[in-house]
Amino acid sequence: MIDTLLHIPPFHVRVRSPLASVSDHLEFFYRGYPVSDAEAFVDFDVQVLPGKGLRRWWAPQVRFLLDGVESFYPLPLDQAAPMLEWGLNWCVASRPLGYLVMHAGMLARGDQALMMPGVPGAGKSTLTASLCLLRHWRLLSDELAILEPASGLMKPHPRPISLKNASIDLVRAFNGARIGRVYKDTRKGTLSHAACPAGSVDLATNAARVRWVVFPKFNAGTSPACEEISRVEAFSLISEQSFNRERMGEAGFDALCALLTDARCFQISYGSTADGLALIEQVTQ
Amino acid sequence: MVGIAPLQTQFNLTAGRLLKFSPDWPCSDARVVFDCLSGDYWVISHLAKGVLESLQRGGKVTFDQLAQTQLAEQSPPTRWHETLELTLRSLVNAGLLVDTRGPTATAVLDDCAIS
């Protein structure tokens, strides 16, 4: 039985589970993370538990609980670790924490951040992994852009990068990549995770200001293209990828407007990782 | 003479909204207007923003004044009244304005051509 209090900035997360696959996942991906003080306020108290009832004898399942409440249907037991990661994403996206939370890959060079919002399948996780492993950008998050309205800064939330299908082997070939177990037949296809680089974990309390907003679109074989777009268009596109903009009200609107005022916005389409990296290099010069 | 009647005599801001606007970002005529109470937002034109701001301030703005302030940079501004009519209708359709002229009203031009 594992019962640990992790500091995954900016949150403190208590994880409890009797499952070896969960403790193995935490050991592999979160070993270098600081352990929270016993006094720290626990933002998310999560449990990953085996399923109940007779079903556990022929099709065992796993359940995710936040503060003792089970909000999702169970998944097959061998998907316990992905369920922990999906569940943590849900915690951050759904809890009213005073942050504007958006669906985007986030990286930084120094204190200047690159934000890559995108619908699932746009290729942002692969591009995020490529930028931090091949171009040494600092990983803030591959899924969740966390904007603090008061400061206008993006809070790092470094966690394993979620890779799907063909991108798993692509990223596995990168120098320095640490890829975890592969999970087949998940609701997102074949899934695996790439560990967050240690340097990004070490700097996980260093917030950054968004300088570039890039909407990536991967389409195998297409020629690279880049277009600067207006901030109004970017506002609309980001709003589609925001988890809590409506609930954040005026503070969220002001924060997003301020973010866009300081940033330049682009749409890029590319057909290979090399082209994607070259386009990012071009817009962030 | 077109546009003597104040806008407020014909259009009101929809009750229960608290509107806020995006900055005047360069390189785009469009603006974002956000309802702080519902969390909804709309992308509107610079002219539409002028209309909403004028009504929100409660001033006695007229169509002519709007045309001068909002469309002065457009050349030639000969069709400003049609543009304004379309803008007002789009704001009504978006639920941001209420047309108080009633169901028999046909066109802003007809209505504002009173002195």
Describe, in short, the structure shown.
With 285 residues, chain A is an alpha+beta fold.
Question: How would you characterize the overall build of this protein?
Answer:
- The complex is a heterodimer of chains A (285) and B (115).
- Chain A has 285 residues and is α+β, with helices and mostly antiparallel strands.
- Chain A contains eight helices and 17 strands.
- In chain A, β7 (100-109) and β8 form a beta hairpin.
- Chain A starts with a strand and ends with a helix.
- Chain B is an alpha+beta fold.
- Helices cover 34% and strands 17% of the residues of chain B.
- In chain B, strands 2-3-4 form a three-stranded antiparallel β-sheet, with helices on one face. A two-stranded antiparallel ribbon of chain B has the order 1-5.
- Mean pLDDT of chain B is 74; it is low at 104-115.
Label the overall shape of chain A.
Answer: globular
Percent helix among the residues of chain A?
25-40%
Radius of gyration of chain B: 14 Å
Q: What is the largest interface, and how many residues per chain?
A: A-B, 17 and 18 residues
Return the domain count of chain A: 2
Number of helical runs of chain B? Answer: 4
What are the SSEs and their pairings?
The complex is a heterodimer of chains A (285) and B (115).
Chain A: E1 2-8, E2 11-17, H1 20-29, E3 44-50, E4 61-66, E5 69-70, E6 75-76, H2 80-94, E7 100-109, E8 112-117, H3 124-134, E9 138-141, E10 144-148, E11 153-155, E12 161-164, H4 166-172, E13 183-186, E14 189-194, H5 198-202, E15 209-218, E16 225-229, H6 231-240, H7 245-261, E17 264-270, H8 273-283
Parallel strand pairs in A: 2-3, 8-15, 15-17
Antiparallel strand pairs in A: 1-2, 3-4, 4-5, 4-6, 7-8, 7-9, 7-10, 10-11, 12-14, 13-14, 16-17
Chain B: E1 11-13, E2 19-21, E3 30-35, E4 41-45, H1 46-57, H2 63-70, H3 80-93, E5 97-99, H4 108-112
Antiparallel strand pairs in B: 1-5, 2-3, 3-4
